[in-house]
Amino acid sequence: MLEISNLACSRGDHRLFAGLSFELHxxxxxxIQGKNGSGKTSLLRxxxxxxxxxxxxxxxxxxxxxxxxEDYFARMIYLGxxxxxxxxxxxxxxxxxxxxxxxxxxxxxxxxxxxxxxGLKGRERLPTKVLSQGQRRRVALARLLVSHAxxxxxDEPLTALxxxxxxxxxxxxxxxxxxxxxxxxxxxxxxxxxxVEIASLSLS
Length: 204
Fold this sequence. Notes:
- By secondary structure, the chain is α/β, with parallel strands linked by helices.
- It is about 35% helix and about 25% strand.
- It contains seven helices and nine strands; from the N terminus they run E-E-E-H-E-E-H-H-E-H-H-H-E-H-E-E.
- The strands form two sheets. It has a five-stranded parallel β-sheet with strand order 6-7-8-3-9, sandwiched between helices. The chain has a four-stranded antiparallel β-sheet with strand order 2-1-4-5.
């Protein structure tokens, strides 16, 4: 379980949010809403340890994440606005390298299966620089399929995706939740997860 208590975060002299509290349990999904500049991305990056909050506590299974350190970060995966892929490398190489950096041993067969699940059959060995923006996003999202993380933290995961890929993302998230995974995300596009009620939290 992820517990957020009285969290506050600033950008420079501007307070983005304060007194923020919520819980996320296994099998649950939470959408963070708010206008541009309200602190949605900052909140996600704070949960991932990239930003130190001004105040408050982030707890994982009842323990402060500052005490858990790597034990917490190993249970989560973050995908941001940028795809974080190398143009000169193939989709296959990008996926295997990113998995390796996360401590995951990913063989070629499983990597190809993940890329094909994301609709990239026939493009696994192409340099990612020749792929469309939507295809490049699919390469990045394939990391979710090979990750062992319980908590998915997704910042605008649907960016550049077509209708089919958006539907696929809903299915993948549904499968993750059914396995007692957790998801917290932002998006400007509608996301439907079949059979799942999506909770929302608004930042003003």
